[in-house]
Specification:
alpha/beta; Aminopeptidase; 10 helices; binds zinc ion
């Protein structure tokens, strides 16, 4: 890409690992797949970003409205009867609901490519690399599958790189969290201390939409982002059995802990992660540790944030998690190829499908 679109007006760095042709992560490339290449799925526009970019969504598999109850999730729990929200759980739904959300953070391109690969598999039987994926396709076809490959197109549009394998982590961080006016980087955690991100901004990080909102830490009771609001409504409407919120980091794959949820949820998440990691081990792919089942914010600690994961749970997702997919900047990622970054996600998608098919009502 020319440096013309580089908001930093600096030369782009070159990696020794070039981005392969099949790795499509640009806004236009993702929009092309969602809006022009989907024939079997149903395409909807979830929302329009502050930068006036569409947030597209592709849905496969019929819903089961007859299982919907008479109350929102919160009120159903208040009634002591979760079925008043949705009848779901083992043996109830014919099509368990799986939602794949990617690109909440615009520099975290890996999950976007994984989500597009799922759409390609559903449409053509071949993944984004062009490899046949009959087993994964057959499993995913039995679900109600909702794919949102790029939740924050504004952020993605600010990033001139399409992938990070072999590039310095600082370069990713500079575009990810952005800089102050003097060029100093905000970096990962300090960037969260300014929200919405406005004022002393040299280059707005890809974390944020064009209004400076990081959707992971939106205002849950009055969302600043229309996309956040639409996502919460979608979750409430669908009652997904499982949500993957695909993020990226320069670490080995990691399923993050979820806070402000019941212990039963935390145990279910730990069990899920244990099995998902076992499958990565089997394929020789890396991962970090299973999230611990612990109390939130013991005395003497800074309490954890109520981020998008508990928000999705409290809106109606039965199991939801953020998964960090490796950027591949350095050896700390445990991967050094784009193919491995994709393979990790295919393993995780199949783990999700098998988990969900275990809940399925067989006819
Ligand atoms: Zn992220």
């Amino acid at each position: 890409m020319s440096t013309g679109s580089n908001p930093c007006k600096q030369e782009l760095l070159k990696s020794e690992v070039p981005v392969p042709r099949w790795w499509k992560s640009k806004v236009e490339e993702i929009q092309e797949v969602v809006y022009n290449q989907v024939k079997r799925g149903e395409v909807q526009t979830l929302s329009v970003s502050p930068g006036e970019r569409k947030v597209g969504m592709v849905i496969y598999g019929d819903p089961e409205p007859e299982l919907k109850g008479t109350a929102n999730f919160n009120s159903a729990l208040g009634s002591g009867n979760p079925d008043a929200y949705y009848r779901r759980g083992p043996g109830v739904r014919k099509r368990p609901v799986f939602m794949i959300l990617a690109g909440v953070h615009g520099q975290e391109v890996e999950g976007m490519v994984g989500a597009v690969s799922v759409i390609k598999i559903m449409e053509t039987g071949k993944d984004i690399m062009g490899r046949e994926q009959p087993v994964l396709k057959e499993k995913l076809e039995k679900l109600r599958l909702i794919v949102i490959p790029l939740a924050n197109p504004d952020g993605r549009a600010r990033v001139p790189y399409d992938g990070w394998v072999g590039l310095p982590e600082d370069e990713m961080t500079r575009y990810g969290q952005g800089t102050k006016k003097n060029g100093e980087m905000y970096r990962w955690l300090p960037s969260k201390a300014v929200h919405p991100m406005r004022g002393d901004v040299g280059m707005l990080g890809a974390y944020f939409d064009d209004n400076g909102v990081n959707m992971m830490h939106d205002e849950w009771f009055a969302p600043m982002s229309n996309t956040t609001k639409a996502l919460l409504e979608l979750v409430g409407r669908e009652g997904p059995d499982l949500v993957y919120n695909l993020h990226g980091a320069n670490i080995k794959p990691k399923i993050l802990p979820v806070n402000y949820v019941p212990v039963s949820f935390k145990q279910k998440l730990a069990d899920f992660a244990t099995e998902a990691y076992r499958r990565l081990d089997e394929k020789g792919l890396p991962h970090l540790e299973v999230p611990e089942v612990t109390e939130d914010g013991p005395v003497g600690t800074v309490p954890p944030a109520f981020n998008m994961s508990p928000a999705f749970y409290h809106a109606g997702a039965d199991l939801t998690m953020v998964i960090e997919i490796p950027h591949g900047c350095t050896a700390r990622s445990g991967v050094s190829s784009y193919e491995a970054i994709l393979d990790i996600q295919h393993v995780l998608f199949e783990a999700a499908a098998d988990y969900l098919l275990g809940l399925r009502r067989n006819e």
